[in-house]
Design a protein that fits this description.
The protein has one domain. It has 17 helices and no strands. The protein is globular, with a radius of gyration of 22 Å. Keywords: Antibiotic resistance, Cell membrane, Membrane, Transmembrane, Transmembrane helix, Transport. GO terms for molecular function: antiporter activity; xenobiotic transmembrane transporter activity. Pfam families: MatE. This is Multidrug export protein MepA.
């Protein structure tokens, strides 16, 4: 039974999905942020640099989870909008099989390529050792990393956003307790951080899969129904591929920044970049939560051809990713010392470099929220190619800025590359969104007579 009732207000529908999605995304990010807090306090900048250099390798599994979670979730919502329950079930179980197959392939690739990825970023000495320890532990259960990313998205698309949030809260709480035990008490370093994350993700995976076989799920799978469909797999991968590229773009950008920070700065600079990344993540996950919360109703209303409601949901999401982004910039610039202190043990050089990063790297952070919203919007309306174009453009457009600005401005140029490239990208994608809304008749252009009449009244 669908929850998109005809008599429900658009605002109520939007927030019903957005609030649990925001909570879920922010809580999911606590895995990394909590690790960063404990590592920063108990190990210092070398540990922060190590975990940041390990991230591009680990990110491959998270990217697969996002691709399957978003792609399969979109297919599920579209079929639910068309009241096709059996196809919804096949789409879901195909997503399960994709998680198993692709995560195993990814683990093999990471094991063989991890050290090369670290060396390419300039990792050396202690930060290299820390990063290797972190990766090696996580690879023992890399399957759980992909599943713990995808399953809450799939649960949310099964009309259970609160259950999805519950899964992530449970995982985050387990991670907090185990981080303190393994890092603070037992002194296991980054290996302890990785082990804490792995156990938490395993719990989320087991609970998430179990949910779909219970009466709480509208799908209520049985073991006989765990089928694989090649067509559904292609459909899910096509729709989720832009999310994969978007996530891998984040990994690529982190790797390039790490390499440039080591070249123009030091391991302390990379540690500062890790802290700035955690502060960036808090907003980005909130914005992604808003966007992913808008995805189920947008997909549903698009499937049922209620175009006016598609536009209303999109407009609400755009409003809030912009407002929250601007507010976060203000908070960070008013009290940078306070936010930085959460991740340090009093290292003044690390704090000073982090404040520079906040000023230069995060001043246009709200544009990242708009970009992720537009990408997920196109994915939600079955326009995977347009979403892919934006994701690829997001990578390509940063390269010249990362290559040129540091030569002109040194380390400040590295910090400035991302926000300036985002400004350029927004200028390019704004017309694409507007034209799509008009072409699909999601918005109606105001007739010339109405415009003239409105002008005369003014």
């Amino acid at each position: 039974m669908t929850t998109f009732h005809a008599d429900s207000s658009i605002t109520r529908t939007f927030w019903r999905y957005a609030i649990p999605s925001i909570a879920a995304m922010v809580v999911s990010g606590l895995y990394q942020i909590i690790d960063g807090i404990f590592v920063g306090h108990y190990i210092g900048f070398e540990g922060l640099a190590g975990i940041n250099m390990a991230w591009p390798a680990i990110c491959i599994l998270g990217a697969l989870g996002v691709m399957i979670g978003m792609g399969t979730g979109s297919v599920m919502s579209i079929y639910r909008g068309q009241n096709k329950l059996e196809k919804t079930k096949v789409a879901l179980t195909t997503g399960f099989w994709l998680l198993v197959i692709l995560s195993l392939i990814a683990i093999i690739c990471i094991v063989f390529l991890a050290e090369n990825i670290l060396h390419a970023q300039g990792a050396e000495g202690k930060n290299f050792e820390f990063a290797v320890d972190y990766i090696n532990v996580l690879m023992f259960g890399g399957f759980f990393t992909a599943c713990a990313t995808a399953l809450p998205m799939l649960v949310r698309n099964d009309e259970s956003p609160n259950v999805a949030t519950f899964l992530l809260v449970v995982g985050a709480l387990i991670n907090i307790v185990l981080d303190y035990l393994f890092i603070g008490v037992m002194g296991l370093g980054l290996s302890g951080a990785a082990l804490a994350t792995l156990i938490a993700q395993a719990v989320v995976t087991v609970l998430g899969i179990h949910y779909f076989f219970t009466k709480r799920s509208s799908i209520q799978l049985t073991m006989k129904e765990v089928l694989f469909s090649r067509n559904k797999a292609k459909q899910s991968l096509a729709l989720g591929s832009s999310a994969l590229v978007m996530y891998m773009y984040g990994s690529f950008v982190v790797a390039m920044h790490n390499a440039l920070m080591m070249h123009y700065g030091s391991a302390t600079t990379v540690g500062a970049y890790a802290i700035v990344g955690y502060l960036f993540m808090l907003y980005y996950l909130l914005a992604q939560g808003i966007a992913e919360g808008a995805q189920p109703p947008i997909s549903y209303y698009f499937g049922s051809q209620e175009n006016k409601k598609v536009y209303q949901i999109f407009k609400l999401a755009l409003k809030w990713v912009t407002i929250t982004g601007i507010a976060w910039v203000g908070i960070l610039n008013i009290s940078p010392e306070f936010t930085t202190a959460l991740f340090t043990n009093g290292d003044q050089s690390l704090i000073a470099e982090t404040i520079v990063g906040i000023r230069y790297h995060l001043f246009a952070i709200f544009l990242d929220g708009i970009i992720v919203l537009v990408t997920i919007y196109f994915l939600s309306v079955n326009e995977g190619k347009k979403a892919m174009v934006i994701s690829i453009s997001n990578i390509i457009i940063q390269l010249p800025f990362l290559l040129i600005l540091p030569k002109w401005f040194g380390i400040d140029g590295v910090w400035l590359a991302m926000p300036i490239s985002n400004i350029a990208l927004i200028v390019c994608i704004a017309p694409m969104v507007w034209n799509h809304l008009k072409t699909q008749k999601i918005i109606q252009p105001m007739p010339l007579a109405a415009i003239l009449q409105h002008t005369n009244h003014v």
